[in-house]
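Readers outside the structure-tokenisation community will struggle with the description of the input data as it stands. I therefore recommend that a typical entry be quoted early in the introduction. An entry of this sort, consisting of the sequence and the corresponding backbone structure tokens, reads as follows:
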Amino acid sequence: MAVSTVGSNHQVIVDPKIEDFMILLGSIWTDARLTRFGTVEVRAPPCQPSIKDLMSINALVLGLRNNSYEAENYLKRFSDSEIKKARIDAIYNGLDSSIGDVSIKEVSDNMLKIAARGLENRERINYLQPMRDTLEEGVNHAVRSRRRFLEFKRMNLSGQDFLDAFITAHRFDIS
């Protein structure tokens, strides 16, 4: 347990558990949630990513917006219920989840290709590289964050030291 005053002058007792991560949809779908209605919900992860990660989100959204008809046509193969189930599947299985019978990795790869075709030049396409790297590694921000959490728990840090270390590990990275 630790005491936190983040965001107020009131002290709050904090006792995080790994199960707490299971309710953070924003920590699973960290970049963009695509809908079959041709919209993209942009979500920053609860951890603070690097500038490169943030720019990749913008490049993805711009590329998909510019190539929205192709993106929408691709997503039509999935029902609304399949997309909703995939969000839950992703909470527990990360990039090893699926939408219907198609893996999230395959869907993500196809959407990155569609976004790249919607960008005007090579420099903008390069902004998508952090997402490509995440796909190739097979580990998203949420999984990395959970791993850090468990690593700090194994270190048997005191409550405040644990909380401080975990927050520091998620600070904004300007690289």
Notes: The first strand starts at residue 2 and ends at 4. The mean pLDDT is 78. Residues 47 and 170 are 5 Å apart (CA to CA).
